[in-house]
Model the fold of this input.
Amino acid sequence: MAAFFHKLRQGLARTKSQVFDRLSQIIATRTRIDDELLEEIEEILITGDVGFDTTLTLLERVQQRVRKERCEDPRQLLRLLKAEIVRFFPPMKVWEEQLPEKPFVILVVGVNGTGKTTSIAKLTYRYQQRGKKVLLGAADTFRAAAIEQLGVWAERLGADVIKHHSGSDPGAVAYDTVQAAVARGMDVAILDTAGRLHTKVNLMEELKKIKRVIQKVLPQAPHEVLLVLDGTVGQNALNQARNFVEAVGVTGIVLTKLDGTAKGGSVIGIAHQLGIPIKYVGLGEQMEDLEVFHPQTFVEGLFEDQTVSENR
Amino acid sequence: MLEDLTAKLETALKKIRGQGKLTEKNIADSLKEIRRALLEADVNYRVVKQFIEAVRRKAVGAEVLGSVTPGQQIVKIVHDELVRLMGESHAGIKLAGIPPTIIMLAGLQGSGKTTVAGKLARYLRKKGRRPMLVAADVYRPAAKEQLKIIGRNLGIPVYATDSPDAVGICKESIMACRKQGCDVLILDTAGRLHVDEEMMRELEQIKKEIKPHEILFVADSMTGQDAVNAARQFLDRLDFSGVVLTKLDGDARGGAALSIRSVTGRPIKFIGTGEKLDAIEDFHPDRMASRILGMGDVVTLVERAQEALDLEKAKKLEHKLRRDEFTLEDFYDQLQQIKKMGPLDQLLGMIPGLGKQFRQVQVDEKALVRIEAIINSMTPEERRNPRMINGSRRRRIARGSGTRVQDVNQLLKQFEEMRKMIRRMKKMKFKGAMNPGGFPFS
Done:
């Protein structure tokens, strides 16, 4: 928890200083809660990728509470904003120490270039740290050298990979991986899939097939379907999530590249509009840079007072 | 492409279209809608503000209020502003006087640099150049292998070594390039997050030592408000000369295209429109603006047609049409040529007026495959003379193509209709029906 907080603070330092700190500053200079102030808050939230609809909803809820609680001090706004943002995040469970099934099958999906393979490496490391045996499945048979990329990570991690030739049927790789995981008594099986734009119908069908094939070995699998989203993505994130949910029933989101710049906001929009839990956050390029997502900590970090952040 | 934005703007403008006169009030309403649409499409907040201001200034004026169809004028103003925002005309690649021309690619992780490198190489070779790819990403696992595979598939040489020194690799590659008689070098560099000092320094170092003629910033078109920050940082450090926007074949993202250009002042030179290595197109601001406004993109369609179509065959076909000798064999050829032009849903999106209705339609590429299979299961004689296909032949063809007799019937009926239509068109005077390029869509 402490590690998460520290890294997140580092990662979000720029977001904070550019977007949300401006919020604290603006609020601090005002004496009244009026339309002008609310409009400025709207601009700041949209610039932070929170999204138009979510921003409107958020401001509406905050205004309601302002009226109900008869707030007049603008400084109260910050508290209300935080509370309302936290409410957007649905409750969630991360399966790590105690796995409900053996093998615990995780299917990892997403559009091109979001960091699926890297996230899988980080996830593998987390499970290995907890004494779990992990088997990887290289079901991205499409992109050039994707199998090699996963192979390099597996070697670094000392994990086994099930792989076929480039261009072979990803369903067959998935089948073999799950079957091998059962036969070898592995705790966890993680399947890497090819990046695909959510609008390509045939590729989404392929994903559905991968899921069906897995279920031929284990009817309850996959136990977790993780959608990997690029932290710098804008409003398209919602479309992506919607289509992947429809195709394979996403159970959680991994938000990557959160050590870049302005982007805390997209998480808020996703949580609000889709109700899918954010489970992990990628905060760096090293194996250990993957943390479980905590809404409270996250929001606190976003709005942390500038005087404090300067002292850290 | 950019469908959501188009749809939103169309709704916004319909409000004006529906009313007889333009007032300050209903301009304001429409502008609010346009603002919302642009923000939802991830256009940068500041850029939206400027855009709306510019449109407002031009709209609230005598020329619009006095016009007969104010709606059309607003559409034109918005369109012109979009074009202006994205840079007036198309900008190509600058080639060096003394080869090799060196093109350096830079951008964030996962923006698609390596794929763009391959696409660009193929594109330049098609234009008569001899490109060479350089694997200068020494960090990402298997990045080098990815580029090698791409090079092998294209038959384009790739310079790659096991050295961990990206600057050194780039330097050596110039010699290798001359030795192999290549005239364009494409440097695929490492991508990281732009806050990373180390990468930026490495890129600056490459720029200083190699002095590339073009530096292209590769950006993911799905990026949110942050697109502007990333672009600005790369501009500050590298002063890039152009932009490649990738992943434009998905949905809902006009934002980056609009804002990057307006903030950096650098032209968008290419767009990536698919995973295959031929999915790269020149960026044309006016066409993009037309697409955004639902006006279709006929120019791209015609260009694609010209690239895919065989002129010889087209002439032969025209001849056959004139003499009423159009057979199923010719029909099959036509199908093949249309397929070469790209995915059908993309093609439909470019036809003016069709855009809106077909936005929701899933084009069934499989229907084409079925037709192909049916024709493939016929004997050459049957193809030339479909009338001879009787009941038992139909059953055989259905079995052979894995379809039903009804499917075969339907195809034969459609073909007969088509021939009748051609005959009728011929009577109406053939001249206008085929354009000089032999464009087969008439």
Chain A touches chain B through 47 residues (CB under 8 Å). The longest strand of chain A covers residues 224-230.
